Amino acid sequence: MGVRFYKPTSAGRRGGMVSDFSEITDRKKKPEKSLVVPYKKTGGRNFQGKITSRHIGGGHKKMYRLIDFKRNKDNVTGVVTHIEYDPNRTCRIALVQYEDGEKRYILAPEGLAAGSKIMSANDGLEPIVGNCMPLEKIPTGTSVHNVELQPGRGGQLCRSAGVSAVVNARESGWAQITLPSGEVRRVPSSCRATIGVLGNGEHMNIVIGKAGRVRWMGKRPYVRGSAMNPIAHPMGGGEGRRSGGRHPVSPTGKLAKGGRTRNPRKTSRNAIVRRRKSVRYGQLKL
After folding, report:
1. What's the domain count of the chain?
2. 178 inside domain
3. How far apart are CA 153 and CA 63, in angstroms?
4. Model confidence pLDDT, tens digit, residues 71-118
5. Has residue 244 been placed in a domain?
6. CATH number, domain containing residue 9
7. Does 222 fall in a domain?
8. Which of 120, 197, 200, 211 is positioned for an S-S bond with 132, CB 3.0–4.6 A?
9. Any domain includes 273
10. What's 216's DSSP letter?
11. If you ran DSSP here, which 8-state letter would residue 258 be given?
12. What does the pLDDT look like over 135-183, one tens digit per residue?
């Protein structure tokens, strides 16, 4: 698991990197046919054809792999048959075949390889990599991923490459976990999580190298607001180049730096024990 450098045969190749895919079991294997569905592109447009998310469009064709985020197949041993690449996420996925013949994809943590055995259960499981169990059964100090926010809903936290949460404490039906951002949050202790740190941690070190690779990902070019006309953006206009003339804002006029974006009336606000540290005008503030 690491990155591979290209020879500088062109300006785009110079400095560009790719993953070495060393953890992939078989690079020629196609995804499990029963676990893929078509991935429809929207171009950032809603049902009326209006653009609601900018800078989206194009990109390589891909199929969506159905991932088992719920891990609700209890007390049945599964064997990992392949570690595969998933174009829809940064981490790798593992194809698991259970004793009854059913196959499912799960997120692949570090240390999980072809031939590994995993299981999900409410009780009686060892906290080894790949096993899924409620937070109330996981020892404190253990690294977990794919953490649920509501029991039975499926994992929603810590699903990217190289990330994990740490179980800190448990009391009165709640478990306290530290997220990768530094935020400490309370989660119902009956929520499930999977043991281990997600693999492909070197993903964050990859240098794209050229603009074309970004287009392959389905991202269109971004134009600075200060380069637009005043009719198109609040930061636009001015004689020659100017450095703004006001605090940076979004196309709708909302402050782009330093403003709080979280809804203060969000119900899950009460579950946050300690907020993450955010950088605001060069200073660390809670």
Report:
1. 1
2. yes
3. 24
4. 999 999 999 999 999 999 999 999 999 999 999 999 999 999 999 999
5. no
6. 2.40.50.140
7. no
8. 120
9. no
10. H
11. S
12. 999 999 999 999 999 999 999 999 999 999 999 999 989 999 999 999 9
